[in-house]
Amino acid sequence: MINVGKNNSLEVVKIAEFGVFLDAGEYGTTLLPKRMAPEGVELGHYVDVFLYFDSDNQLAATTEKPVAEVGEWGVMTIESVNSTGAFASWGIKNKDLLLPFSEQRTRFKPGQSVLVYVYTDKASGRIVGTTKFNKWLDKTPANYTKNQQVDLIIAERSDLGFKAIVNGQHWGMIFPSDVFGKLFIGKKLKGFIKNIRPDGKIDLSLQKIGVEKMDDLSEKILETLAKKGGSLPLSDKSSPEEIFAAFRTSKGTFKKSIGTLYKQGKIVIEKDGIRLA
C-alpha cells in the first residue's frame, strides 16, 4: 500500500538517463531524479523514498528527509506568506509545507520558527500543516501509570510552566519545580507521568518520582563511576547545570543519592568529586 506523506520502499521498474521510475501502486509510477538514485541501482531493486504531491499536484519521490511526516510534529521556519496561508520549510528542496490561515493559531511572519503538526486534509487530499493541536490530542483516555516513561515534545510555554505533547496523543504540563536543563519549543525528550488528575489532566516530571527515582539514579551513578575509572569530578558542590548535563536530574536529587551511597559505603565523597569506595 502506498502511503503519501510517509516513507515508502518502492521497486525500480524502469531506468532512464534522467532517473529511475518506481512502482507507486495505484498512482502508477513516479520518478526519482538521477541525483537521488542510489549508486548501482538496478531493475527490481527497492529504494526508500518519501512521497508527496508537488506544486502540480503530481506524485513525487525524494530521498530527502522531511522535518516531519504525516502524523508527526516538527519545528519549521516560515519561509513566506501569501493569500493562501503561510509556507514553512519542510526539509524538501523546492517544496514548502502549507499552513492554511484556518490552521494557524496566530498569524505568522517569515523567519518565525513554529511547531507544526503534519496531516492530510480529507477534503482536498493535500498534505498541510497546523498549529491548532487540540483537535488531534486528548481524543482517547489517558491510561498512564505513575512513573511511566513517556515521549514528550515541548509545545508551549505559559505562566504555569511548559505544555508538552505526551506520546503524540495527549496534553501534559511540566510545572517550574519539575523543569531541569534547557527546554524550548519543539524539543523532544523522555519524561515521566507524575500524576493524572480527576479531570484527566496530566502532570509530568523529567525524572522518576520518589524512591524509585532515587534507586534508578544511584544505579546510574555507580555505573558511570565504573565506566570513568572509579571517579567523577562531581559532588554536592557542583553546579546544577553540571549535574543535569551528566545525569539529567536536579542537584537536590543528586545530593540525596550520593549521600545514600556514601552511607552504604559504596562511594567516597571528596572535595573535588566522588569515587568508588
Describe the protein in words.
Helices cover 14% and strands 40% of the residues. It is mainly beta. The strands form four sheets. Strands 3-2-1-4-5 form a five-stranded antiparallel beta sheet, with no helix packed on it. It is globular.
Features:
single chain, 277 residues, mainly beta, OB fold (Dihydrolipoamide Acetyltransferase, E2P), 4 domains, five-stranded antiparallel sheet, 3 helices, 14% helix
Structural class: mainly beta
Broad CATH class of the largest domain: Mainly Alpha
Query: How many β-strand runs?
Result: 18
Number of helices: 3
CATH domain topology of the largest domain = Arc Repressor Mutant, subunit A
Unreliably modeled segments: none
Q: What's the number of structural domains?
A: 4
Outline:
It is built from three helices and 18 strands. It is mainly beta.
Task: Summarize the helices and strands and which ones pair or pack.
Blueprint: E1 7-16, E2 19-23, E3 29-33, E4 46-53, E5 59-62, E6 73-81, E7 85-92, E8 95-100, E9 113-120, E10 127-130, E11 149-158, E12 161-166, E13 170-174, E14 188-196, E15 202-205, H1 210-227, E16 231-232, H2 240-247, H3 251-263, E17 267-270, E18 273-276
Parallel strand pairs: 13-15
Antiparallel strand pairs: 1-2, 1-4, 2-3, 4-5, 6-7, 6-9, 7-8, 9-10, 11-12, 11-14, 12-13, 14-15, 16-18, 17-18
Helix pairs in contact: 1-3
